[in-house]
Design goal:
By secondary structure, the protein is an alpha+beta fold. About 35% of the residues lie in helices and about 10% in strands. The protein has one helix at about 75-130, and strands at about 45-50, 55-60, 145-150, 150-154. A two-stranded antiparallel sheet has the order 1-2. It has a two-stranded antiparallel ribbon with strand order 3-4. Strand 1 (about 45-50) and strand 2 form a beta hairpin. It starts with about 45 loop residues before the first strand and ends with a strand.
């Protein structure tokens, strides 16, 4: 069951356009000249901008960050040698673990083979050296077969 698709006409809404209202130009005001003693900063400072506006505000003395001690440069070669040494040690450790694992696995498999040979050999020895004779089984009589004129006579 699918809904009926009908062509719908989009709803038309009235569009409102807003235009910003420009502010009247500011009349340049001449700031009072404050005498400044050399080496001191007044509490309030006024600045005359090139377009004629005056900005008045507090003068802030920006603190300078403490100089950072220069770190000695480490050559790229030294870094590469150090990283190579770390990588070499990691590879050697991994190879040592791998060879140890292979040696342990080989010893385990050889012990399993020896155990199987001992158990199977013991079973064969019991079968051969058991004091009781034949306990049943199949008896096969072998007689001499004769071939005469390419025919088997058994």
């Amino acid at each position: 069951m699918s809904p009926d698709h009908t062509h719908r006409v989009p709803i038309q809404r009235a569009v409102e356009v807003h235009h910003p209202t420009p502010l009247p130009p500011a009349v340049p005001v001449s700031a009072p000249v404050v005498p400044v003693q050399p080496g001191t900063v007044p509490a309030v400072a006024s600045i005359l901008l090139p377009d004629g506006r005056v900005v008045t505000g507090y003068a802030i003395d920006h603190p300078q960050p403490a100089p950072v001690a220069a770190k000695p440069a480490v050559s790229r070669t030294a870094v590469n040698v150090a990283l190579g040494g770390i990588g070499f040690l990691a590879v050697c450790g991994g190879l040592l673990l791998l060879t140890s694992f292979i040696a342990a696995l080989t010893a385990f498999i050889s012990q399993l083979i020896i155990l199987a040979a001992v158990i199977f050999g013991g079973w064969i020895a019991v079968q051969i050296f058991s004091p009781s004779g034949h306990k049943g089984g199949t008896t096969v009589h072998i007689r001499r077969a004769v071939f005469k004129r390419n025919h088997f006579h058994g």
